[in-house]
Amino acid sequence: MDLEEAEEFKERCTQCEAVSWGLTDEGKYYCTSCHNVTERSKEVINTEVIPHAQIKALNRGLKRKNNSEKGWDWYVCEGFQYILYQQAEALKNLGVGPELKNDVLHNFWKRYLQKSKQAYCKNPVHTTGRKPTVLEDNLSHSDWASEPELLSDVNSPFLESGMESQSDVHTRKSFPISKASQSETSVCSGSLDGVEYSQRKEKGIVKMTMPQTLAFCYLSLLWQREAITLSDLLRFVEEDHIPYINAFQHFPEQMKLYGRDRGIFGTESWPNYDDIYKKTIEVATFLDLPRFPEITEDCYLHPNILCMKYLMEVNLPDEMHSLTCHVVKMTGMGEVDFLTFDPIAKMAKTVKYDVQAVAIIVVVLKLLFLLDDNLEWSLSNLAEKHNEKNKKDKPWFDFRKWYQIMKKAFDEKKQNWEEARAKYLWKSEKPLYYSYVDKPVAYKKREMVVNLQKQFSTLVDSTPTAGKKSPSSFQFNWTGEDTERTCFHGHSLQGVLKEKGQSLLTKNSLYWLSTQKFCRCYCTHVTTYEESNYSLSYQFILNLFSFLLRIKTSLLHEEVSLVEKELFKKKYSVTKKKSKSKKVRRY
What we know:
mainly alpha, N-terminal domain of TfIIb, three-stranded antiparallel sheet, 5 strands
Protein backbone atom coordinates (compact mmCIF):
# COMPACT_ATOMS: atom_id res chain seq x y z
CA MET A 1 0.00 0.00 0.00
CA ASP A 2 1.23 3.49 -0.84
CA LEU A 3 -0.27 6.46 1.02
CA GLU A 4 1.78 9.09 -0.86
CA GLU A 5 0.37 8.22 -4.31
CA ALA A 6 -3.17 8.38 -2.93
CA GLU A 7 -2.79 11.95 -1.65
CA GLU A 8 -4.14 13.42 -4.91
CA PHE A 9 -7.55 11.76 -4.29
CA LYS A 10 -9.43 14.37 -2.21
CA GLU A 11 -12.98 13.03 -2.10
CA ARG A 12 -14.56 12.22 1.30
CA CYS A 13 -15.30 8.66 2.29
CA THR A 14 -18.97 7.74 1.89
CA GLN A 15 -18.99 5.96 5.30
CA CYS A 16 -16.84 7.97 7.69
CA GLU A 17 -16.42 11.19 5.61
CA ALA A 18 -12.65 11.13 6.22
CA VAL A 19 -10.14 12.22 3.58
CA SER A 20 -7.39 9.67 4.10
CA TRP A 21 -6.82 7.26 1.24
CA GLY A 22 -4.48 4.49 0.33
CA LEU A 23 -4.01 2.18 -2.67
CA THR A 24 -4.61 -1.56 -2.72
CA ASP A 25 -2.52 -4.01 -4.72
CA GLU A 26 -5.16 -3.83 -7.46
CA GLY A 27 -4.85 -0.04 -7.72
CA LYS A 28 -8.15 0.80 -5.97
CA TYR A 29 -8.55 3.56 -3.40
CA TYR A 30 -9.40 2.51 0.19
CA CYS A 31 -10.11 4.59 3.29
CA THR A 32 -7.38 4.22 5.97
CA SER A 33 -9.88 5.10 8.72
CA CYS A 34 -12.72 2.62 8.08
CA HIS A 35 -11.03 0.47 5.39
CA ASN A 36 -13.83 1.11 2.90
CA VAL A 37 -12.74 0.15 -0.65
CA THR A 38 -14.10 2.32 -3.53
CA GLU A 39 -14.63 1.48 -7.18
CA ARG A 40 -12.30 4.30 -8.18
CA SER A 41 -8.86 3.22 -9.35
CA LYS A 42 -5.60 4.94 -10.22
CA GLU A 43 -3.69 4.57 -13.45
CA VAL A 44 -0.33 3.20 -12.38
CA ILE A 45 2.73 3.04 -14.56
CA ASN A 46 5.37 2.06 -12.00
CA THR A 47 4.94 -1.73 -11.86
CA GLU A 48 7.92 -2.16 -9.54
CA VAL A 49 6.05 -0.58 -6.64
CA ILE A 50 2.69 -2.31 -7.35
CA PRO A 51 3.18 -5.51 -9.34
CA HIS A 52 0.61 -6.52 -12.00
CA ALA A 53 -1.35 -3.27 -11.52
CA GLN A 54 -0.63 -1.55 -14.83
CA ILE A 55 -3.00 -3.56 -17.06
CA LYS A 56 -5.86 -3.51 -14.59
CA ALA A 57 -5.55 0.21 -13.93
CA LEU A 58 -5.30 1.14 -17.63
CA ASN A 59 -8.29 -1.05 -18.44
CA ARG A 60 -10.39 0.69 -15.82
CA GLY A 61 -9.14 4.05 -17.00
CA LEU A 62 -10.41 3.42 -20.53
CA LYS A 63 -13.80 2.30 -19.26
CA ARG A 64 -14.06 5.35 -17.08
CA LYS A 65 -13.07 7.59 -19.99
CA ASN A 66 -16.08 6.52 -22.01
CA ASN A 67 -18.27 8.73 -19.84
CA SER A 68 -16.26 11.82 -20.73
CA GLU A 69 -15.77 11.10 -24.46
CA LYS A 70 -19.00 12.85 -25.30
CA GLY A 71 -17.05 16.08 -25.01
CA TRP A 72 -18.42 19.53 -24.36
CA ASP A 73 -22.06 20.42 -24.04
CA TRP A 74 -22.72 22.72 -26.99
CA TYR A 75 -25.63 24.11 -28.98
CA VAL A 76 -26.23 24.23 -32.74
CA CYS A 77 -25.78 27.99 -32.95
CA GLU A 78 -22.33 27.57 -31.37
CA GLY A 79 -21.41 25.29 -34.26
CA PHE A 80 -22.50 27.89 -36.81
CA GLN A 81 -20.68 30.51 -34.77
CA TYR A 82 -17.47 28.54 -35.07
CA ILE A 83 -17.98 28.08 -38.82
CA LEU A 84 -18.53 31.82 -39.27
CA TYR A 85 -15.34 32.44 -37.35
CA GLN A 86 -13.40 30.12 -39.66
CA GLN A 87 -14.93 31.72 -42.76
CA ALA A 88 -14.08 35.19 -41.48
CA GLU A 89 -10.49 34.11 -40.88
CA ALA A 90 -10.33 32.71 -44.42
CA LEU A 91 -11.61 36.00 -45.85
CA LYS A 92 -9.00 37.82 -43.80
CA ASN A 93 -6.30 35.60 -45.32
CA LEU A 94 -7.65 36.51 -48.77
CA GLY A 95 -6.93 40.18 -48.10
CA VAL A 96 -10.16 41.41 -46.53
CA GLY A 97 -9.73 43.91 -43.70
CA PRO A 98 -9.88 42.57 -40.10
CA GLU A 99 -12.75 44.94 -39.30
CA LEU A 100 -15.05 42.67 -41.33
CA LYS A 101 -14.69 39.96 -38.69
CA ASN A 102 -14.30 42.08 -35.57
CA ASP A 103 -16.95 44.70 -36.33
CA VAL A 104 -19.38 43.86 -39.10
CA LEU A 105 -19.84 40.08 -39.03
CA HIS A 106 -19.63 40.05 -35.23
CA ASN A 107 -22.47 42.55 -34.97
CA PHE A 108 -24.58 40.82 -37.63
CA TRP A 109 -24.28 37.56 -35.70
CA LYS A 110 -25.21 39.20 -32.39
CA ARG A 111 -28.21 40.71 -34.11
CA TYR A 112 -29.24 37.32 -35.45
CA LEU A 113 -28.97 35.68 -32.03
CA GLN A 114 -31.25 38.34 -30.61
CA LYS A 115 -33.81 38.30 -33.41
CA SER A 116 -33.92 34.50 -33.39
CA LYS A 117 -34.34 34.56 -29.58
CA GLN A 118 -31.23 32.49 -28.92
CA ALA A 119 -29.36 35.16 -26.93
CA TYR A 120 -29.52 38.85 -25.93
CA CYS A 121 -33.12 38.38 -24.78
CA LYS A 122 -34.74 37.72 -21.42
CA ASN A 123 -35.65 34.10 -21.99
CA PRO A 124 -33.58 32.36 -24.71
CA VAL A 125 -34.91 29.23 -26.34
CA HIS A 126 -32.17 27.11 -24.73
CA THR A 127 -33.05 27.85 -21.12
CA THR A 128 -36.58 26.42 -21.12
CA GLY A 129 -38.77 24.25 -23.28
CA ARG A 130 -41.43 26.90 -23.70
CA LYS A 131 -41.37 29.79 -26.15
CA PRO A 132 -39.25 32.67 -24.86
CA THR A 133 -40.38 36.20 -24.40
CA VAL A 134 -38.55 38.83 -26.39
CA LEU A 135 -36.98 41.96 -25.01
CA GLU A 136 -39.30 44.79 -24.11
CA ASP A 137 -38.20 46.72 -27.17
CA ASN A 138 -40.35 46.21 -30.22
CA LEU A 139 -38.21 44.21 -32.63
CA SER A 140 -40.79 43.98 -35.39
CA HIS A 141 -39.82 47.41 -36.67
CA SER A 142 -36.46 48.93 -37.45
CA ASP A 143 -34.82 49.39 -34.03
CA TRP A 144 -31.17 49.36 -35.07
CA ALA A 145 -30.70 52.93 -33.87
CA SER A 146 -32.16 52.04 -30.46
CA GLU A 147 -29.42 49.43 -29.95
CA PRO A 148 -26.19 51.21 -30.83
CA GLU A 149 -24.05 48.57 -29.17
CA LEU A 150 -24.72 46.23 -32.09
CA LEU A 151 -23.00 48.64 -34.45
CA SER A 152 -20.59 50.48 -32.18
CA ASP A 153 -19.20 47.55 -30.18
CA VAL A 154 -15.87 47.72 -31.92
CA ASN A 155 -13.74 46.86 -28.90
CA SER A 156 -14.92 43.27 -28.72
CA PRO A 157 -13.33 41.07 -31.40
CA PHE A 158 -15.44 38.43 -33.07
CA LEU A 159 -14.79 35.06 -31.46
CA GLU A 160 -11.12 35.49 -30.68
CA SER A 161 -10.98 31.95 -29.33
CA GLY A 162 -13.17 30.61 -32.09
CA MET A 163 -15.94 29.84 -29.62
CA GLU A 164 -16.59 32.85 -27.39
CA SER A 165 -16.52 36.62 -27.59
CA GLN A 166 -14.69 38.43 -24.81
CA SER A 167 -17.50 40.91 -24.36
CA ASP A 168 -20.34 38.39 -24.37
CA VAL A 169 -20.64 38.05 -20.61
CA HIS A 170 -24.39 38.42 -20.65
CA THR A 171 -24.55 35.91 -23.49
CA ARG A 172 -23.11 33.23 -21.25
CA LYS A 173 -25.73 33.95 -18.64
CA SER A 174 -28.67 33.45 -20.97
CA PHE A 175 -26.94 30.97 -23.30
CA PRO A 176 -24.71 28.93 -20.99
CA ILE A 177 -21.97 26.56 -22.03
CA SER A 178 -22.60 24.44 -18.98
CA LYS A 179 -21.48 21.04 -17.81
CA ALA A 180 -24.95 19.57 -17.99
CA SER A 181 -25.77 16.17 -16.65
CA GLN A 182 -25.89 13.28 -19.05
CA SER A 183 -29.65 13.18 -18.73
CA GLU A 184 -29.79 16.60 -20.36
CA THR A 185 -27.53 15.62 -23.25
CA SER A 186 -29.25 14.58 -26.45
CA VAL A 187 -28.75 10.91 -27.22
CA CYS A 188 -29.60 11.49 -30.90
CA SER A 189 -27.09 14.27 -31.58
CA GLY A 190 -23.77 15.54 -30.34
CA SER A 191 -25.25 18.97 -29.69
CA LEU A 192 -27.71 19.51 -26.86
CA ASP A 193 -30.46 20.83 -29.13
CA GLY A 194 -29.75 19.00 -32.39
CA VAL A 195 -33.02 17.08 -32.44
CA GLU A 196 -35.09 20.07 -31.36
CA TYR A 197 -33.34 22.35 -33.86
CA SER A 198 -33.94 20.03 -36.81
CA GLN A 199 -37.65 19.90 -35.98
CA ARG A 200 -38.08 23.59 -35.16
CA LYS A 201 -40.38 25.47 -37.54
CA GLU A 202 -41.25 28.86 -36.14
CA LYS A 203 -42.95 31.39 -38.38
CA GLY A 204 -40.99 34.57 -38.95
CA ILE A 205 -37.66 33.10 -37.79
CA VAL A 206 -34.87 32.52 -40.32
CA LYS A 207 -33.37 29.15 -39.49
CA MET A 208 -29.60 28.99 -39.69
CA THR A 209 -28.20 26.61 -42.32
CA MET A 210 -24.88 26.18 -44.07
CA PRO A 211 -25.91 28.37 -47.05
CA GLN A 212 -26.92 31.03 -44.53
CA THR A 213 -23.29 31.28 -43.39
CA LEU A 214 -22.30 32.39 -46.90
CA ALA A 215 -25.18 34.87 -46.87
CA PHE A 216 -23.74 36.38 -43.66
CA CYS A 217 -20.28 36.56 -45.24
CA TYR A 218 -21.59 38.24 -48.39
CA LEU A 219 -23.62 40.74 -46.38
CA SER A 220 -20.46 41.63 -44.46
CA LEU A 221 -18.48 41.99 -47.68
CA LEU A 222 -21.21 44.15 -49.15
CA TRP A 223 -21.32 46.35 -46.05
CA GLN A 224 -17.56 46.86 -46.25
CA ARG A 225 -17.71 47.28 -50.06
CA GLU A 226 -14.89 44.81 -50.44
CA ALA A 227 -13.49 43.78 -53.82
CA ILE A 228 -15.15 40.35 -53.71
CA THR A 229 -18.39 39.70 -55.59
CA LEU A 230 -20.83 36.91 -54.81
CA SER A 231 -19.49 34.80 -57.68
CA ASP A 232 -15.94 35.27 -56.36
CA LEU A 233 -17.08 34.17 -52.90
CA LEU A 234 -18.67 31.00 -54.25
CA ARG A 235 -15.63 30.26 -56.40
CA PHE A 236 -13.33 30.59 -53.39
CA VAL A 237 -15.61 28.16 -51.56
CA GLU A 238 -15.34 25.78 -54.51
CA GLU A 239 -11.54 26.04 -54.42
CA ASP A 240 -11.48 25.30 -50.65
CA HIS A 241 -10.14 28.72 -49.74
CA ILE A 242 -13.23 29.32 -47.58
CA PRO A 243 -14.55 26.52 -45.32
CA TYR A 244 -17.97 25.26 -46.38
CA ILE A 245 -17.98 21.63 -47.49
CA ASN A 246 -17.23 19.53 -44.38
CA ALA A 247 -16.60 22.69 -42.39
CA PHE A 248 -17.49 20.79 -39.22
CA GLN A 249 -14.20 18.90 -39.34
CA HIS A 250 -12.52 22.09 -38.10
CA PHE A 251 -14.53 21.90 -34.87
CA PRO A 252 -12.52 21.37 -31.68
CA GLU A 253 -12.07 17.73 -30.74
CA GLN A 254 -14.29 18.21 -27.69
CA MET A 255 -17.27 19.22 -29.87
CA LYS A 256 -18.66 15.79 -30.74
CA LEU A 257 -20.90 15.75 -33.80
CA TYR A 258 -23.20 12.88 -34.76
CA GLY A 259 -26.86 11.96 -35.26
CA ARG A 260 -29.07 14.87 -36.24
CA ASP A 261 -26.00 17.09 -36.51
CA ARG A 262 -25.25 15.33 -39.81
CA GLY A 263 -28.20 16.98 -41.52
CA ILE A 264 -27.49 20.37 -39.96
CA PHE A 265 -23.78 20.79 -40.64
CA GLY A 266 -23.20 18.20 -43.36
CA THR A 267 -23.65 19.27 -46.97
CA GLU A 268 -22.94 17.42 -50.20
CA SER A 269 -23.78 20.05 -52.80
CA TRP A 270 -22.06 23.16 -54.03
CA PRO A 271 -23.63 26.50 -53.11
CA ASN A 272 -25.89 27.91 -55.82
CA TYR A 273 -25.59 31.58 -56.84
CA ASP A 274 -29.31 32.28 -57.04
CA ASP A 275 -29.97 30.46 -53.77
CA ILE A 276 -27.32 32.40 -51.83
CA TYR A 277 -28.55 35.64 -53.41
CA LYS A 278 -32.11 35.01 -52.18
CA LYS A 279 -30.89 33.99 -48.72
CA THR A 280 -28.83 37.18 -48.52
CA ILE A 281 -31.96 39.29 -48.98
CA GLU A 282 -33.84 37.03 -46.57
CA VAL A 283 -31.22 37.40 -43.83
CA ALA A 284 -30.86 41.17 -44.31
CA THR A 285 -34.63 41.61 -44.11
CA PHE A 286 -34.87 39.40 -41.03
CA LEU A 287 -32.10 41.31 -39.28
CA ASP A 288 -33.85 44.56 -40.19
CA LEU A 289 -30.54 46.07 -41.30
CA PRO A 290 -30.33 49.75 -42.21
CA ARG A 291 -29.39 51.10 -45.63
CA PHE A 292 -25.98 49.84 -46.66
CA PRO A 293 -23.07 52.20 -47.49
CA GLU A 294 -23.49 53.78 -50.90
CA ILE A 295 -21.99 52.20 -54.00
CA THR A 296 -20.33 55.11 -55.79
CA GLU A 297 -18.24 55.26 -58.97
CA ASP A 298 -15.00 54.62 -57.08
CA CYS A 299 -16.31 51.39 -55.51
CA TYR A 300 -15.26 48.02 -56.89
CA LEU A 301 -18.90 46.92 -57.21
CA HIS A 302 -19.79 49.79 -59.56
CA PRO A 303 -20.58 48.45 -63.06
CA ASN A 304 -17.95 50.67 -64.70
CA ILE A 305 -15.18 49.02 -62.68
CA LEU A 306 -16.58 45.51 -62.91
CA CYS A 307 -17.01 45.84 -66.68
CA MET A 308 -13.33 46.71 -67.01
CA LYS A 309 -12.45 43.69 -64.88
CA TYR A 310 -14.49 41.24 -66.97
CA LEU A 311 -13.31 42.79 -70.27
CA MET A 312 -9.77 41.97 -69.17
CA GLU A 313 -10.89 38.52 -68.03
CA VAL A 314 -12.29 37.46 -71.39
CA ASN A 315 -9.57 39.16 -73.44
CA LEU A 316 -11.71 41.86 -75.11
CA PRO A 317 -10.40 45.26 -76.32
CA ASP A 318 -9.99 48.05 -73.77
CA GLU A 319 -11.87 50.43 -76.08
CA MET A 320 -15.09 48.57 -75.28
CA HIS A 321 -15.01 50.07 -71.80
CA SER A 322 -16.15 53.46 -73.06
CA LEU A 323 -19.16 51.77 -74.70
CA THR A 324 -20.08 49.87 -71.54
CA CYS A 325 -19.87 53.12 -69.56
CA HIS A 326 -22.21 54.72 -72.10
CA VAL A 327 -24.73 51.90 -71.69
CA VAL A 328 -24.50 52.21 -67.89
CA LYS A 329 -25.22 55.93 -68.16
CA MET A 330 -28.15 55.50 -70.55
CA THR A 331 -29.82 52.77 -68.49
CA GLY A 332 -29.26 54.51 -65.15
CA MET A 333 -27.68 51.36 -63.72
CA GLY A 334 -24.76 53.33 -62.34
CA GLU A 335 -26.81 55.58 -60.09
CA VAL A 336 -26.21 55.38 -56.36
CA ASP A 337 -29.84 54.71 -55.43
CA PHE A 338 -30.01 51.89 -57.97
CA LEU A 339 -26.86 50.17 -56.71
CA THR A 340 -27.13 50.69 -52.94
CA PHE A 341 -28.77 47.88 -50.97
CA ASP A 342 -31.59 48.96 -48.64
CA PRO A 343 -33.20 46.03 -46.74
CA ILE A 344 -35.77 48.32 -45.07
CA ALA A 345 -37.20 49.44 -48.41
CA LYS A 346 -40.61 48.13 -49.44
CA MET A 347 -39.10 46.12 -52.29
CA ALA A 348 -35.88 44.97 -50.66
CA LYS A 349 -33.48 43.74 -53.31
CA THR A 350 -29.80 43.94 -53.99
CA VAL A 351 -28.18 44.19 -57.37
CA LYS A 352 -26.40 41.17 -58.82
CA TYR A 353 -23.37 43.33 -59.44
CA ASP A 354 -21.23 40.77 -61.26
CA VAL A 355 -24.09 39.39 -63.38
CA GLN A 356 -25.20 42.91 -64.27
CA ALA A 357 -21.72 43.92 -65.43
CA VAL A 358 -21.39 40.82 -67.60
CA ALA A 359 -24.87 41.41 -69.09
CA ILE A 360 -23.84 44.95 -70.07
CA ILE A 361 -20.80 43.54 -71.91
CA VAL A 362 -23.02 41.06 -73.76
CA VAL A 363 -25.34 43.88 -74.84
CA VAL A 364 -22.38 45.90 -76.14
CA LEU A 365 -21.15 42.89 -78.11
CA LYS A 366 -24.59 42.55 -79.68
CA LEU A 367 -24.58 46.26 -80.56
CA LEU A 368 -21.18 45.94 -82.23
CA PHE A 369 -21.40 42.54 -83.92
CA LEU A 370 -25.13 41.66 -83.83
CA LEU A 371 -24.09 38.03 -83.01
CA ASP A 372 -26.35 36.43 -85.63
CA ASP A 373 -23.67 34.07 -87.06
CA ASN A 374 -23.37 36.31 -90.09
CA LEU A 375 -22.40 39.93 -89.46
CA GLU A 376 -19.64 39.15 -86.94
CA TRP A 377 -17.88 36.93 -89.50
CA SER A 378 -18.19 39.57 -92.25
CA LEU A 379 -16.62 42.18 -89.96
CA SER A 380 -13.91 39.66 -89.09
CA ASN A 381 -13.01 39.30 -92.78
CA LEU A 382 -12.54 43.07 -93.04
CA ALA A 383 -10.40 43.15 -89.89
CA GLU A 384 -8.27 40.26 -91.12
CA LYS A 385 -7.57 41.93 -94.48
CA HIS A 386 -6.71 45.24 -92.81
CA ASN A 387 -4.32 43.61 -90.36
CA GLU A 388 -2.47 41.81 -93.19
CA LYS A 389 -1.96 45.06 -95.10
CA ASN A 390 -1.12 47.24 -92.08
CA LYS A 391 1.01 45.05 -89.83
CA LYS A 392 2.78 48.03 -88.27
CA ASP A 393 -0.40 49.86 -87.30
CA LYS A 394 -2.63 49.14 -84.36
CA PRO A 395 -4.48 45.91 -85.23
CA TRP A 396 -8.24 45.85 -85.62
CA PHE A 397 -10.17 43.54 -83.40
CA ASP A 398 -10.83 40.25 -85.21
CA PHE A 399 -13.89 38.57 -83.71
CA ARG A 400 -13.23 35.25 -85.45
CA LYS A 401 -9.68 35.02 -84.15
CA TRP A 402 -10.84 36.00 -80.66
CA TYR A 403 -13.57 33.35 -80.81
CA GLN A 404 -11.13 30.61 -81.77
CA ILE A 405 -8.57 31.49 -79.08
CA MET A 406 -11.17 32.03 -76.39
CA LYS A 407 -13.05 28.84 -77.18
CA LYS A 408 -9.89 26.77 -76.91
CA ALA A 409 -8.97 28.35 -73.57
CA PHE A 410 -12.55 28.01 -72.31
CA ASP A 411 -12.80 24.34 -73.27
CA GLU A 412 -9.52 23.55 -71.46
CA LYS A 413 -10.55 25.48 -68.36
CA LYS A 414 -13.98 23.87 -68.25
CA GLN A 415 -12.57 20.37 -68.72
CA ASN A 416 -10.14 20.86 -65.83
CA TRP A 417 -12.99 22.20 -63.72
CA GLU A 418 -15.22 19.21 -64.48
CA GLU A 419 -12.41 16.77 -63.71
CA ALA A 420 -11.69 18.52 -60.41
CA ARG A 421 -15.35 18.31 -59.45
CA ALA A 422 -15.50 14.64 -60.39
CA LYS A 423 -12.46 13.87 -58.23
CA TYR A 424 -13.63 15.90 -55.27
CA LEU A 425 -13.79 13.88 -52.05
CA TRP A 426 -17.10 14.62 -50.36
CA LYS A 427 -16.35 12.43 -47.36
CA SER A 428 -14.67 14.33 -44.55
CA GLU A 429 -11.55 13.31 -42.70
CA LYS A 430 -13.65 13.34 -39.52
CA PRO A 431 -16.34 10.67 -40.08
CA LEU A 432 -19.99 11.39 -39.30
CA TYR A 433 -22.05 8.78 -37.54
CA TYR A 434 -25.69 8.55 -36.51
CA SER A 435 -25.18 7.56 -32.88
CA TYR A 436 -22.34 7.32 -30.43
CA VAL A 437 -22.50 3.52 -30.62
CA ASP A 438 -21.71 3.66 -34.35
CA LYS A 439 -18.51 5.65 -33.84
CA PRO A 440 -16.05 2.71 -33.97
CA VAL A 441 -17.68 1.33 -37.11
CA ALA A 442 -17.65 4.75 -38.81
CA TYR A 443 -13.96 5.30 -38.06
CA LYS A 444 -13.10 1.79 -39.20
CA LYS A 445 -14.92 2.31 -42.51
CA ARG A 446 -13.20 5.66 -42.98
CA GLU A 447 -9.81 4.08 -42.36
CA MET A 448 -10.53 1.37 -44.94
CA VAL A 449 -11.63 3.97 -47.51
CA VAL A 450 -8.46 5.99 -47.01
CA ASN A 451 -6.28 2.92 -47.40
CA LEU A 452 -8.08 1.87 -50.58
CA GLN A 453 -7.76 5.36 -52.03
CA LYS A 454 -4.02 5.35 -51.41
CA GLN A 455 -3.64 1.95 -53.06
CA PHE A 456 -5.69 2.84 -56.14
CA SER A 457 -4.02 6.22 -56.53
CA THR A 458 -0.66 4.48 -56.48
CA LEU A 459 -1.76 2.03 -59.17
CA VAL A 460 -3.49 4.55 -61.43
CA ASP A 461 -1.21 7.56 -61.20
CA SER A 462 2.17 7.71 -59.61
CA THR A 463 2.45 11.49 -59.93
CA PRO A 464 1.63 13.42 -56.75
CA THR A 465 -1.69 15.23 -56.59
CA ALA A 466 -1.43 18.95 -57.29
CA GLY A 467 -1.89 21.08 -54.20
CA LYS A 468 -4.50 23.74 -53.69
CA LYS A 469 -3.86 26.61 -56.08
CA SER A 470 -3.44 30.11 -54.76
CA PRO A 471 -6.55 32.34 -54.90
CA SER A 472 -6.89 34.89 -57.68
CA SER A 473 -9.55 37.31 -58.89
CA PHE A 474 -8.85 36.24 -62.49
CA GLN A 475 -9.34 32.79 -63.94
CA PHE A 476 -7.66 33.49 -67.30
CA ASN A 477 -4.19 34.90 -67.79
CA TRP A 478 -3.45 36.74 -71.05
CA THR A 479 -0.14 38.38 -70.13
CA GLY A 480 2.04 35.27 -70.60
CA GLU A 481 4.57 34.56 -73.32
CA ASP A 482 2.37 32.02 -75.10
CA THR A 483 2.31 33.13 -78.73
CA GLU A 484 -0.78 31.05 -79.51
CA ARG A 485 -2.86 33.02 -76.99
CA THR A 486 -3.01 36.49 -78.49
CA CYS A 487 -3.88 39.31 -76.12
CA PHE A 488 -6.59 41.55 -77.64
CA HIS A 489 -6.60 44.23 -74.93
CA GLY A 490 -4.79 46.75 -77.09
CA HIS A 491 -6.69 46.08 -80.33
CA SER A 492 -8.80 48.75 -81.99
CA LEU A 493 -12.55 48.82 -82.68
CA GLN A 494 -12.07 51.01 -85.71
CA GLY A 495 -13.27 48.22 -87.97
CA VAL A 496 -16.75 48.17 -86.37
CA LEU A 497 -17.19 51.91 -85.70
CA LYS A 498 -17.64 54.87 -88.02
CA GLU A 499 -17.34 58.60 -87.45
CA LYS A 500 -20.30 60.91 -87.84
CA GLY A 501 -19.42 64.44 -86.93
CA GLN A 502 -17.75 64.39 -83.53
CA SER A 503 -19.31 61.09 -82.46
CA LEU A 504 -18.74 57.45 -83.27
CA LEU A 505 -21.52 55.17 -84.46
CA THR A 506 -21.58 51.42 -84.93
CA LYS A 507 -21.49 50.16 -88.52
CA ASN A 508 -24.13 47.69 -87.47
CA SER A 509 -27.58 49.33 -87.45
CA LEU A 510 -29.54 46.24 -86.40
CA TYR A 511 -30.32 44.66 -83.08
CA TRP A 512 -32.37 41.68 -81.94
CA LEU A 513 -33.96 41.51 -78.54
CA SER A 514 -33.78 38.55 -76.23
CA THR A 515 -37.41 38.63 -75.08
CA GLN A 516 -40.46 38.33 -77.28
CA LYS A 517 -42.71 39.98 -74.68
CA PHE A 518 -40.72 43.20 -74.71
CA CYS A 519 -40.58 43.22 -78.49
CA ARG A 520 -44.35 43.16 -78.78
CA CYS A 521 -44.64 46.14 -76.45
CA TYR A 522 -42.06 48.46 -77.93
CA CYS A 523 -40.70 47.45 -81.31
CA THR A 524 -42.72 44.90 -83.22
CA HIS A 525 -40.56 45.20 -86.33
CA VAL A 526 -37.50 43.65 -84.69
CA THR A 527 -37.04 39.97 -85.42
CA THR A 528 -37.53 37.79 -82.34
CA TYR A 529 -35.77 34.54 -81.55
CA GLU A 530 -36.62 31.53 -79.48
CA GLU A 531 -34.00 30.29 -77.05
CA SER A 532 -33.36 27.15 -79.11
CA ASN A 533 -32.60 29.27 -82.19
CA TYR A 534 -29.93 31.52 -80.70
CA SER A 535 -26.81 31.90 -82.80
CA LEU A 536 -23.74 29.85 -81.96
CA SER A 537 -21.68 32.93 -81.19
CA TYR A 538 -24.29 34.24 -78.75
CA GLN A 539 -24.60 30.85 -77.07
CA PHE A 540 -20.83 30.65 -76.70
CA ILE A 541 -20.65 34.09 -75.07
CA LEU A 542 -23.44 33.17 -72.65
CA ASN A 543 -21.70 29.90 -71.77
CA LEU A 544 -18.36 31.65 -71.33
CA PHE A 545 -19.62 34.30 -68.91
CA SER A 546 -21.88 31.83 -67.10
CA PHE A 547 -18.86 29.64 -66.45
CA LEU A 548 -16.86 32.58 -65.13
CA LEU A 549 -19.59 33.45 -62.64
CA ARG A 550 -20.60 29.82 -61.93
CA ILE A 551 -24.24 30.62 -62.73
CA LYS A 552 -26.89 29.16 -64.97
CA THR A 553 -27.10 30.45 -68.54
CA SER A 554 -30.77 31.28 -68.05
CA LEU A 555 -29.91 33.64 -65.19
CA LEU A 556 -27.48 35.60 -67.37
CA HIS A 557 -29.96 35.64 -70.25
CA GLU A 558 -32.59 37.17 -67.96
CA GLU A 559 -30.17 39.88 -66.86
CA VAL A 560 -29.31 40.66 -70.50
CA SER A 561 -33.02 41.07 -71.17
CA LEU A 562 -33.33 43.52 -68.27
CA VAL A 563 -30.44 45.63 -69.58
CA GLU A 564 -31.97 45.65 -73.06
CA LYS A 565 -35.33 46.64 -71.65
CA GLU A 566 -33.89 49.63 -69.81
CA LEU A 567 -31.68 50.64 -72.72
CA PHE A 568 -34.24 50.50 -75.50
CA LYS A 569 -37.07 51.85 -73.39
CA LYS A 570 -35.20 55.12 -72.95
CA LYS A 571 -33.79 55.05 -76.48
CA TYR A 572 -37.25 54.51 -77.92
CA SER A 573 -38.76 57.34 -75.89
CA VAL A 574 -36.11 59.74 -77.24
CA THR A 575 -36.33 58.73 -80.88
CA LYS A 576 -40.13 58.75 -80.85
CA LYS A 577 -40.16 62.45 -80.04
CA LYS A 578 -37.74 63.23 -82.88
CA SER A 579 -39.24 61.14 -85.63
CA LYS A 580 -41.67 58.26 -85.69
CA SER A 581 -40.12 56.99 -88.91
CA LYS A 582 -36.70 56.38 -87.37
CA LYS A 583 -36.01 52.85 -86.27
CA VAL A 584 -35.45 52.10 -82.64
CA ARG A 585 -32.84 49.51 -83.44
CA ARG A 586 -30.36 52.12 -84.68
CA TYR A 587 -27.67 52.79 -82.11
